[in-house]
Design brief:
Layout: H1 2-13, H2 24-37, H3 40-51, H4 54-80, H5 88-96, H6 98-134, H7 142-157, H8 161-185, H9 204-221, H10 228-239, H11 243-272, H12 275-284, H13 288-295, H14 299-334, H15 341-362, H16 366-392, H17 403-424
Length: 425
């Protein structure tokens, strides 16, 4: 076991790189992580969190940064513990063996691929609602609209991983400005909204139950685990032995940015809309931005809100496609088949297009998909697997004994038990 730990240490020492000052590439990754996380989950968070009441929302806000930062740092460290150039599927097989590697690769794919389905539904609903309510034109049949939108995003995917990350980082700038503008615009329209529930302190059992069921949605809303593998591989290539330190810096800044921006936006929305209006938005299966566009007569908001939603969902789709395709290719590799890279890329794109198109056409409940598919499955990969590896893998032994490990494990268990409860109820 010590020999294995030493061999891992030698791999780090073999590629010494001086940790330089913050670079443009670091900023690109920071914004890429932000862009992957801020999508459909975030745009539905005000609806789901607001329906829970004031005090659960405040507690969730306090948990947001440690919950997201420690979990994503753990997954990044897990990928960094592998050989040079190994993605998450390779590292799992390296540490846990071939059979466990195949199982975790399957779970990794199942954790990410449903998110693409969620984004496909959200994107189709957003564009269809924009055409009907703002442009006042009849949208094409849902099947055609969904096919065109998904095909357009897959055309961007064909440009390659680095192009996707750069495109997402560029899209983040106007998105941050627009989201901030919208949150500030809503301030004069604050009418108390959720504050009407602040005077009533829920019973401990009711509060814990609300938090318990809301955790999976929070996990999904700030999740960018699909791009963590590519992020860690690039950090290892760039910084070698210093990859852990620099990746932690990038993650902390990305999470601080997303938590501050998202929570300001969430509170601005729930202070503007009443619980009844939030329930109506959930029933209509629309994002909060699309609902706000239909709610206000202001033409600027009516046009800007759906466009912001479109950009948010589109860039998150691109980021999650990286992880989903990585998982699917890993599954193909585990079967022993080795198609040519271009052939495998085409097969992956065709599969993604077909399934995303079918689900977007059927239009299932987005919040229902988040609650039953997104958050809990992600929790197994994002929260529990890295903590298990810290206990069992010699290469990660140096991270043992930290209080954050207990916190991350607890959040992961809460998310998974919430799924079991929702399926049984």
């Amino acid at each position: 076991m010590n020999d294995q730990a030493n061999s891992v240490d030698e791999r780090y020492v073999a590629t010494p790189v001086i940790l330089t000052n913050w670079s443009r590439q670091d900023t690109t990754w920071m914004l890429g992580l932000f862009g992957t996380a801020i999508g459909a989950g975030t745009l539905f968070l005000p609806i789901n969190a607001g329906l829970g009441g004031f005090w659960p929302l405040v507690i969730l806000a306090l948990l947001a940064f440690p919950m997201t930062f420690f979990a994503h740092r753990g997954l990044t460290r897990f990928v960094l513990s592998g050989r040079e150039g190994s993605d998450i599927t390779d590292v799992v097989e390296e540490h846990f063996g071939v059979k466990a590697g195949a199982l975790i690769t399957l779970l990794y794919f199942l954790a990410i691929f449903p998110i693409l389905l969620i984004y496909s539904v959200a994107l189709t609903n957003t564009v269809g609602s924009f055409m009907e309510h703002q442009l006042h034109i009849m949208p094409p049949p849902r099947a055609i609209l969904a096919f065109v939108l998904i095909l357009g995003l897959l055309a961007v995917v064909r440009c390659g991983e680095q192009a996707i990350v750069k495109a997402m980082s560029v899209m983040v700038y106007p998105f941050i400005v627009a989201l901030l503008f919208l949150a500030v615009y809503l301030i004069p329209h604050w009418n108390g909204g959720i504050l009407s529930t602040a005077s009533v302190v829920p019973a401990p059992s009711a509060l814990l139950s609300t938090l318990w069921l809301a955790i999976p949605v929070m996990v999904f809303s700030f999740n960018h685990s699909p791009i963590i593998s590519a992020f860690a591989v690039d950090q290892k290539r760039q910084y070698g032995a210093n990859a852990d330190e620099r990746s932690s810096q990038i993650l902390s800044r990305a999470h601080l940015l997303m938590v501050v921006m998202v929570l300001f936006f969430v509170f601005s929305c729930v202070l503007t809309l009443s619980p009844a209006q939030l329930a109506e938005a959930k029933a209509q299966n629309l994002s909060i931005l699309s609902y706000l566009a239909n709610h206000f007569d202001n033409p600027t908001i009516a046009f800007a809100a759906p466009l912001i939603a479109f950009v948010a969902i589109a860039k998150s789709f691109l980021g999650h496609y990286i992880g989903a395709s990585e998982g699917l290719k890993g599954l193909v590799a585990k079967t022993g088949r080795r198609p040519a890279p271009k052939t495998l890329d085409r097969m992956t794109a065709a599969f993604m297009l077909l399934v995303c198109w079918i689900v977007a056409t059927l239009n299932p409940s987005i919040l229902g998909m988040i609650e039953t598919l997104g958050g809990p499955i992600i929790a197994s990969i994002l929260f529990l697997m890295p903590m298990y590896a810290i206990r069992k893998v010699p290469a990660m032994a140096k991270y043992r004994g930290q209080a954050s490990n207990v916190f991350v494990t607890a959040v992961g268990l809460v998310a998974i038990t919430a799924l079991i409860y929702s399926l049984m109820s």
